[in-house]
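Hi F.,

I've been meaning to write this up properly since the lab meeting, where we talked about keeping a consistent format for the predictions we share between groups. The idea is simple: the sequence comes first, exactly as it goes in, then the structure tokens exactly as they come out, then a line or two of notes. No screenshots and no reformatting. I'm using this chain as the first example so we have something concrete to point to.
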Amino acid sequence: MRFLKGAEMSFLKGAEMRFLKGAHVTGGARLPRLWLVSDPVRLPDPRRAAARLPPGSAVLARGLAPAVLRGLAALARRRRLVLLVAGDGRLALALGAGLHVPDRASCAGLLAFLRARRPGALLSVAAHGRAGLARARRLRARVALVSPAFPTASHPGAPALGPLRWAALAARAPRGVAVVALGGVEAANASRLPRCRLAGFAAIGALARG
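Output, unedited:
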């Protein structure tokens, strides 16, 4: 087992580290294994948590105030983090960031982003079911965030996939699309997710607590 440092080690303490042996590689490019996700209610300013992430990690910005987003973009450049903007392709282009496409929702400026994005700009798609994975295929996304893996404070009382259904859905991801687990993932349950197709972990609370 290889023990990681910093935020990765804190997040995965007690989990089976075999899930993160080596980086997941798709299309010859190294992809983030650790994803911090902002939230308008639970984490409206992710800058402090992002500053603790190891270089190469991803930060997914959702519903942030303009000043916070600008500060986060600057922090991402300094810390060599991968920044993605949720649901706004033109804003992602303006910041030189990647784009995250929400599931079951429209994405403003999606075509503009697909036409004008810089080489290497990451495109991720949310997937709560087969429709999300089909969208990932159509858009040729690099990453699918498959959720909710476990019960999550973001959606109290909502049903979670659980390890078996999460694995079944992840197995349907198109070839070349890396699968990241999101939704209630923390050190206590990360090892319950099967290694097959698991490229990384995304979290709000577990990484915000540091």
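Notes:
Helices lie at 6-11, 47-51, 66-79, 89-95, 110-116, 130-139, 162-170, 205-208.
The radius of gyration is 16 Å.

If this format works for you, I'll send the rest the same way.

G.
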